[in-house]
Amino acid sequence: MLLAVPLVAPAQSLNQVLDAQQRRIRLAQESQKRIDAVVKQTRSLEDQYKAVLKEIEGLNIYNTLLQRQVDNQKAQIEDLKASIDQVEVINRQIVPIMTKMIDGLERFIELDVPFLLDERRQRVADLRALLERQDVTVAEKFRKVTEAYQIENDFGRTIEAYKENLQIDDTTREVDMLRIGRIVLVYQTADGSKSGVWDQRSRSWQPLGSEYKNQIKFGLQIARKQVAPDLILLPVDAPEAG
Q1: Tell me: the pLDDT tens digits for 120-176?
Q2: Partners of 204 in the beta sheet?
Q3: Cα(206)–Cα(110) distance, integer angstroms
Q4: How far is residue 126's CA from residue 120's CA, in Å, rounded to a whole number?
Q5: Is 235 exposed, middle or buried (0-12, 13-18, 19+ CB in 10 A)?
Q6: pTM of the entire structure?
Q7: What is the per-residue pLDDT across 72-124, written as a single tens digit (0 to 9) for each?
Q8: Cα(192)–Cα(81) distance, rounded to whole angstroms?
């Protein structure tokens, strides 16, 4: 009995040491797990932080571009405002000019060789009505006025045949009219019995002899493109001395 007692005490101390070591190992392992979890969470937060920084950087670039666009739009708006102000000034100036142009066109038609008078007078009346409309832009009005001038200008370079009612010997008769530019305006009845030419000096119709009957008929055929263009002989007013 005296010899066994000393052997038990060292065995118990060793077990205690081993148990304590195991607890330290478990605590160390648990601590490492917690550290790993913290490190993982920290890395996740760091990645999120970097992603947010990149997103912020992208947003800053985008905002800078938007600001430039806004600045450019503001500049364009200012330019448009200035242009609108200028347009209003131009509109106030151009409307009286167009009115004078229409008045001049009307006077010209009344003093010109009297061909297609109803059509040309109606064009002037339409222009006057157009000027009073609020739903038509000034640019469109001006285009129509200049278009009317161009039509009148083209009359001087074309040949045309059309029918018209004319007062002949106190009787209204339908006749064939032949216009060659603004140089010649003649008529001929359907049966060819009567022909006449417009005299711009006296502003009246003058009768033509039978020698012009076939020439007028041939001219009407040329104007209607029934025959090829050719020379025709018709009376023309001599130019006035300058």
Answers
A1: 999 999 999 999 998 999 889 999 999 999 999 999 999 999 999 999 888 999 999
A2: 199
A3: 19
A4: 10
A5: middle
A6: 0.64
A7: 887 877 776 666 667 677 778 888 999 999 999 999 999 999 999 999 999 99
A8: 67
Q: What is the rounded distance in angstroms from the CA atom of residue 37 to the CA atom of residue 137? A: 75
Q: Which of 127, 128, 106, 126 is nearest to 117 (CA)?
A: 106
By DSSP bridging, strand 159-168 and strand 195-199 are unpaired
- Amino acid found at 147: E
> What does the buried/exposed string (b/e) look like for 55-81 if buried means 16 or more CB atoms within 10 Å of the residue's CB?
eeeeeeeeeeeeeeeeeeeeeeeeeee
- Structure-token pair, residue 190: 């359907």
189 DSSP β-pair partners: 175
Across the beta sheet with 159-168, what order do the strands follow? 159-168, 171-180, 184-189, 195-199, 204-207
Name the residue ranges covered by the structural domains of the chain.
91-155, 159-223
